[in-house]
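#onboarding

Welcome to the new folks! Below is a worked example of what a typical request in this channel looks like: someone posts a single protein sequence, and someone else replies with the predicted structure as tokens. Don't worry about understanding the tokens yet, we'll cover that in week two.

Example request:
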Amino acid sequence: MDVAVVGAGVVGCAVASALARRGRAVVVLERAAREGTGVTSRNSGVIHSGLYYPPGSLKAETCLRGQALLYAWATAHDVPHARTGKLVVARDAAEEAGLAALHANAVAAGARGLRWFDAAEVARREPALPPCRAALWCGLTGIVDPHALTRSLRVDAERCGAQFAMFGELRSVTATAAGLRLDTTRGELEVGALVNAAGLESDHVAALCGLPSPPRLFPCRGDYFRLHAPGRHRHLIYPVRVPGGAGLGVHLTLDLAGGLRLGPDAEYVARRDDFSPAEHKHAAFLAAARALLGPIAAEQLRYDGCGIRPKLRAPGEPDERDFVLAAGPSGCVHLIGIESPGLTAALALAEKVAARLA
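Example response:
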């Protein structure tokens, strides 16, 4: 095969599709039974607008390019999605100043579809919200079904000749005169190049490949609670991010059936595979929900699962880190630290990988 892609999440499947469309012979190695069962399966499904990332960063560039590509792909391939719009709400003068700084950053990064709303316009859009000072409206933000998106990318890759080797965990990588020899749980494989899209294990795969000083990932758990309030809200609603916070703050997202979900929060954890319930966070989520959305009864919140992000930012580090797109040793390309907005950026990241391997 020409290229092995390690990981069949949304990014790995996007890379496989992009390479197969360019005529490359592609095999995707996935240790699970099917595609999209890792980080992708525990995703909010938000199509982001690129508000938070430094201008010129890889996150900003691929989020904005990826958003346009994702809407076009979802339309062309009948992937369920909706352009819901999003409000980032400032509740007091300090948050309004933070919101203005966020707006300036977003404009500098090239974000589109932004408008500044006063309190009256916010009340008109979301009458159930408590009074606020102002809000930033992101008209191009939306939601997509992550499972359907990943499946569509796999189907497209296979239609173009790619092969998927499930239960194919990578064990070792050896350089040869012709390329790379891979030892996997499905046997040995020789390829010309390897793309590391292994999500939470991408730092380990980079080490297997021999990447000098591979970046270290810090697993960061995010829990969700379901809000039972049918018809109460029509848009995604976010608070102004706390400076230095590990996440964006507990926010409200919608699903394609109209359901409401709060989260994720951000908690650094020791394990990458502990998805046990966290009912004990109910009180903290209830307080955050009331601060953002107004009166909510305790029984309206129910625990709804969690995900774990592959963060490059260490606990206590003040700023977020950019995506890593690195090459090395010869024939290997690595995608490391692909957390949010990785779903939005997937098709744009795949473009960049395909260009590198050209």
